[in-house]
Design brief:
This protein is about 65% helix and about 0% strand. It is mostly helical. It has two domains: about 10-190, no CATH class; about 195-345, no CATH class. Helix 1 packs antiparallel against helix 4 (about 90-120), helix 4 packs antiparallel against helix 5 (about 130-150) and helix 7 (about 200-225) packs antiparallel against helix 11 (about 320-345).
């Protein structure tokens, strides 16, 4: 494979500070997604029954306030059906993860919003660019609303949040992360290089969509705790196609609410993602790609292969917390590399 020299540096579109700020916000979103994964896996998400966007940034102070928020939690279905008899000390253990999750979201809003105003005032963000930055801020606010909408689904006659709302919440997090990276990459200028073939460009965009869809299917797995059954591989209790796949009626509910179907679909989408990445990598090896896109596809292929292996190990060990969080980090890594690949090829 032949490749042209390609070196990134800060472009004429804006200052280095704006570019660094965008990537810092992206890194904070990644941390937020991992904190969210821990919150979900430790079943801490329903511990904060109130949504107070302003004064909610302060944790409970004093024994009386802790008792008050604990009493609110004791009225939920999760407490009555799963955690009856939990002590105040045990409640604090789950409360802090959800509190950190919400506090980190507020911190992201501040780290994004305040520098944005500064950059606009200093004219380091051009007027024509402002709408996309405002849209990113609006998406962040919408994510907070969706997060509460998701949590509210767990306060009815169930012990977990809706897997549908969890998928929407995680999906929007990926959208925000991808948008931050795309805008950040767009502010970098590269040395002139040979254009990439049309098929490669379309392939990277299609693969990015597939990676996103696979991540959403993983949200359904997490929401239904579908990773705690069928903990063998490559079969599912000795069968490639699980016997319980079509148990629900109407049939279309199975891919979303049947744990056997949800896990099977996630497996298939993971296989398709690896196959698509491998095909794109092979095509790239045979094309005259510049160094940047070629490097991005190399990293993407390696990360996807590692992510599939990590998913298999996580499943077979019945989803231990450290491996499950690492698997989430792997999904984020694959997505970021897919965004980089698509941007580098389509540039």
């Amino acid at each position: 494979m032949h490749s042209a020299t390609e070196s990134p540096h800060t472009g004429a579109h804006g200052s280095r500070a704006v570019t660094v700020w965008l990537f810092l916000c992206a890194a904070m979103v990644v941390a937020m997604m991992l904190i969210g994964a821990i919150t979900r896996l430790t079943e801490s998400g329903l511990s904060m029954v109130e949504w107070r966007p302003l004064i909610g940034a302060l944790p409970p102070f004093g024994e009386a306030e802790w008792r008050r928020v604990f009493d609110l939690y004791r009225q939920t279905s999760e407490y009555r059906l799963e955690n009856a008899g939990m002590t105040l000390s045990g409640f604090k253990n789950i409360f802090w993860w959800e509190y950190i999750h919400r506090l980190w979201g507020r911190l992201i809003g501040a780290v994004y919003g305040l520098p944005f105003l500064w950059f606009v005032w200093r004219r380091q963000i051009a007027g024509r660019e402002a709408p996309r930055f405002i849209a990113l801020f609006a998406l962040g606010g919408l994510q907070g609303v969706i997060g509460w909408w998701m949590v509210k689904s767990g306060f009815v006659a169930r012990t977990d949040v809706s897997q549908y709302r969890l998928a929407v919440h995680l999906g929007l997090a990926f959208v925000i992360l991808g948008a931050l990276l795309w805008v950040g990459f767009g502010r970098l200028r590269f040395a002139a290089a040979a254009p990439c073939p049309t098929g490669i460009r379309r392939g990277t965009l299609a693969l990015l969509a597939l990676v996103f869809a696979t991540a959403l299917s993983g949200a359904l797995v997490a929401g239904l705790e579908a990773g705690r059954i069928y903990n063998d591989w490559p079969m599912m209790q000795g069968r490639f196609f699980p016997e319980e796949y079509g148990q629900l009626t109407p049939f279309w509910l199975n891919p979303f609410e049947n744990v056997a179907a949800v896990q099977f679909n996630h497996r298939i989408m993971a296989y398709l993602t690896l196959a698509g990445t491998a095909a794109l990598w092979v095509a790239g090896r045979g094309a005259w790609l510049p160094a940047g896109p070629a490097r991005a596809l190399n990293y993407l292929f390696a990360a996807t292969l590692l992510q599939l292996g990590l998913g298999i190990v996580t499943l077979m060990l019945v989803v231990p917390l450290p491996l499950a969080v690492l698997h989430q980090a792997g999904a984020i890594t694959v997505f970021c590399l897919a965004v980089w690949s698509a941007h580098a090829v389509c540039r």
